[in-house]
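ok so dumb question maybe but i'm new to this and my supervisor (M.) told me to 'just get the structure for Cell division protein FtsX' and walked off. so i did the thing. is this what she meant?? sequence i used:
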Amino acid sequence: MFGFIMSEMWQGLRRNTSMVISVILVTFVSLTFVGAAILLQFQIQSMKTYWYDRAQVAIDFCTEQSQSPNCTGGIATQDQIDAVETELQGEALSPYVNEYFFESQDDAYGRFVEQFQDDPLVSFVTPDQLNEAFWVNMVDPEDSDIVIQSITGMPGVESVTDQRQFLDGIFAVLNGASITAFAIALVMLVAAVLLVATTIRLSAFSRRRELRIMRLVGASNSFIQAPFILEGVFAGLVGSLLAAATVFGGTHFFVQGYLQPRMPGMQLVSIWPEAAISAGVVVAIGVLLAGLASSISIRRYLRV
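this is what came out, is it supposed to look like this??
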């Protein structure tokens, strides 16, 4: 019985070669988008964990050039700076503060020159134009608002800034790209499902005489349907395996082989576990959708 089902499946694949190839290609492209979107989500979560844990709260003190309403008294005095430090060490904030350090104007200027050493702007900046600041590392970065609300408005403080706000824009762009990839993949998956259903119906129509004979001799519905469902599963499996191979190849050659050496400070997605999980999901989706589409299509055809 198994041999007969397999021979019927191969016969169906041969009769509809062009349609089967179309199903494989559409499935391959759509699932490649799905795999890319999953990898992108892994990368976003990895970057968030890495950068958010290192993001600091910056408490900038007034300079002679500050325009903030809180800086009408001019440059921050040592007493005002000490008052802020006392607040950081107090009972209200100390449970949330992991560590902090003070950066003088000379330290800030040295860091500025190091970061922008090739920029002509460096020649126009002097140490007295830069803010003295406390850089605060939080126990939990999510609690940064507590420090911001407590310190903002204290005498001599120009601004209190959570560095994570500068990262939110980058992650918003990456999330937008991931959602776009999922949307494209969804549209193409719908096309792939419809194509599988059409292929199975054409295959059943081309073998309508054999199906009629099988019904007359009392063959069960599951026995009649099995070759057609296997046809769809085979096409979906080949397309999803091609997509999984693309996910592995893209991760190995492009991400790890090309991007990682050029971005040594960033942890990028790798073969294990990110690419392996993405490939597994891609294959599961491909086989499941193809099987469901084939099963529903052949049942509806036989019911007519």
